[in-house]
Structure to design on (492 residues):
């Protein structure tokens, strides 16, 4: 990236740039005769990209049987499928203040319609929820704990193992929104006792927007959100019951799957720990710079930058104004506002307008972070200079 | 220098309205000066692309030199603000025309 090129620091929304292999995989797919598994296309070796993709995601999450990896349009579809399919009338659900609207809105709708009861646990100023809070919130009717593994505002990571023990002791299931953690943190659904794990393809799995999916424990019965053509067993007038096709109706997003396949391959090859270390070192560098500027409020400051992202505000300047200045005057793209996680801001102190979030990727350089630091310094001086 | 698009961004809780104007050409320093006639101007020249704010009792304009867009936060009906802005744009254009004519005559 040249000195004057735009600096992209909004990887928690969608990652950019992607590894070269991802672009090559998409171009290769688009230049090939369309191949849809079970439907049509030339029978060539390794043509079944979706099988390869499923296999690699299973490896990433330590899922023994890859048929329990469902591919769809992403985390929102996955969460809607799980929430609408698994919650019975009068069920009690526990979530946290760190949740994204893709969790909040489906659940709040069910609560408004008096179909479920909902408990929202506050997090601390860094975005953590103490597992004991879950224990205290458990009721006889609790059937699900749904937790954001990695906050998309502070990067705080919840203790999956501890929460799953609490859930299972109460006869409830643990559903994990891994949109921000998949590809960045070690996820082992067996070790951590996760019953369903949702992932987005366009963040730290380096795929495209419009692809993602979920893992579902083999013993959990879940009706599909949609039914329709599956390309196989077409003589059946009802949806086939076997996974993954039970949940994969309609022509699949093969360009997205090709990208995700290449992205996950890159993650596996590079190593999750290696990728996270690189990103955390960049965030720590930014934390060191911003925490020296008196006009800057760094949120989740106790993490000391040991996170995959960093959120801040400049005193006296609205976050959207700071982000606007960074983008328009300095060519630095961040994200401002509530980040689709409206409840966390009361807990971390960024109410009512939210904050500016900086989320680097493995491709972010130290020089880019220095440029961001200089830009924030100038913005911070702005009000003092007039 | 013409306005090619007026986009309504949002209505704020405080009763103000946010609009975005797109121009046919990039915003220049002389345009900023013309737009600030009768208002307070803040100009941050040390930014990579200078940022400016024009503060008036009825509205605030903010933007970046070199960009084709600026934002207006209107504290009154936007039509009234737009009227003022159009007057200032026209004054800027006639100033430019005068300069061009002068240059041709010279």
């Amino acid at each position: 990236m040249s000195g004057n090129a735009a600096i992209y620091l909004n990887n928690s929304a969608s990652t950019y740039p992607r590894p070269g292999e991802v672009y090559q995989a998409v171009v290769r797919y688009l230049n090939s005769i369309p191949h849809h598994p079970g439907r049509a296309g030339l029978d060539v070796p390794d043509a079944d990209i979706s099988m390869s993709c499923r296999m690699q995601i299973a490896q990433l999450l330590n899922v023994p049987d890859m048929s329990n990896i469902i591919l769809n349009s992403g985390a929102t579809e996955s969460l809607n499928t799980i929430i609408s399919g698994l919650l019975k009338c009068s069920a009690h659900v526990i979530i946290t203040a760190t949740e994204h609207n893709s969790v909040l809105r489906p659940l709040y709708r069910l609560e408004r319609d008096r179909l479920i009861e909902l408990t929202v646990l506050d997090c601390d100023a860094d975005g953590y929820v103490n597992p004991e809070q879950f224990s205290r919130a458990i009721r006889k009717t609790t059937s699900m704990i749904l937790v954001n593994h990695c906050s998309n505002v502070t990067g705080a990571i919840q203790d999956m193992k501890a929460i799953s023990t609490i859930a299972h002791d109460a006869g409830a299931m643990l559903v994990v929104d891994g949109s921000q953690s998949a590809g960045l943190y070690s996820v082992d659904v067996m070790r951590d006792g996760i019953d369903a794990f949702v992932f987005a393809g366009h963040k730290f799995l380096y795929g495209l927007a419009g692809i993602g999916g979920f893992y579902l424990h083999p013993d959990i019965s879940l009706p599909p959100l949609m039914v329709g053509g599956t390309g196989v067993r077409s003589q059946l007038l009802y949806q086939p019951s076997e996974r993954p096709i039970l949940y994969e109706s309609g022509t699949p997003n093969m360009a997205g799957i090709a990208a995700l396949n290449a992205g996950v391959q890159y993650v596996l090859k590079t190593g999750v720990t290696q990728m996270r270390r690189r990103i955390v070192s960049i965030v720590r560098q930014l934390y060191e710079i911003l925490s020296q500027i008196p006009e800057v409020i760094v949120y989740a400051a106790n993490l000391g930058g040991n996170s995959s992202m960093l959120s801040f505000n400049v005193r006296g300047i609205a976050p959207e104004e700071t982000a606007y200045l960074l983008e328009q005057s300095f060519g630095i793209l961040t994200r401002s506002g509530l980040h689709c996680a409206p409840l966390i801001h009361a807990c971390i102190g960024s109410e009512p307008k939210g904050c500016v979030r900086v989320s680097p990727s493995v491709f972010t350089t130290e020089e880019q972070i220095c440029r961001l630091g200089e830009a924030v310094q100038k913005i911070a001086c702005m009000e003092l200079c007039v | 220098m013409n306005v090619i698009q007026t986009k309504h961004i949002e209505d704020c809780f405080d009763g103000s309205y946010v609009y975005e104007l797109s121009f046919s050409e990039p915003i220049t320093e002389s345009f900023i000066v013309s737009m600030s006639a009768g208002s307070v101007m803040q100009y941050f020249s040390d930014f990579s692309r200078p940022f400016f704010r024009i503060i008036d009792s009825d509205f605030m304009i903010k933007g970046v030199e070199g960009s084709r867009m600026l934002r207006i936060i209107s504290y009154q009906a936007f039509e009234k603000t737009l009227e003022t802005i159009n007057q200032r744009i026209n004054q800027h254009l006639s100033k430019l025309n005068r300069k061009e004519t002068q240059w041709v005559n010279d």
Remarks:
- Chain A has twelve helices and 13 strands.
- The mean pLDDT of chain A is 94.
